[in-house]
Amino acid sequence: MTVYGISALRALVLSGLLASGWCSAATWRNEVPQAQALGGGEMRFLGFSIYHATLWADQKPYQQGRTFALQLTYHRSIARDRLVQTSIDEIRRISNPAIDASTLTRWENVLRGAMVDVAEGDQLIGVYVPERGMRLYSKQTLLADIKEPELARAFFAIWLDPATRDQGLRRQLLGQP
Known about the structure:
By secondary structure, this protein is an alpha+beta fold. The chain has helices spanning 3-20, 28-31, 80-94, 101-114, 149-160, 167-173; strands spanning 36-45, 48-57, 68-74, 123-129, 133-138, 141-146. A hairpin with a 2-residue loop joins strand 5 and strand 6. The longest helix has 18 residues, at 3-20.
């Protein structure tokens, strides 16, 4: 088959997939169509800015149990394994009652399969989907559709739970003084 034939075949297959819904041009903004920024702020560690976080929802004020998006724009490079381990450490610290070790190990593997290394300027966006789980995006590209509601609640608690490590950032995200 010629190069032209291969390209034509790929185009035909891709157009079929698009028409069938197997591939989609959905973005995180399609998940929260009336998204408005509720608030945002900087995550700092030892005086260094790590990322800027913005909380998006279709209503003000923030309401638990409704779809929302958390957008992180990174100011430095961080390896996927570091992102995953920090997330699991924070989930472990915040969770009350404690989450058993086997569940944490499973969640760690799910997050490792979903996350990517980030560099300065990269964005990771998590969309909370009530009673279903969460979707993770890199800018506008879907990285993972995680159908685990408990993991989704625990993951977003890192930023939104009253026991979060950075109370100032939480207040800023929620649009509170």
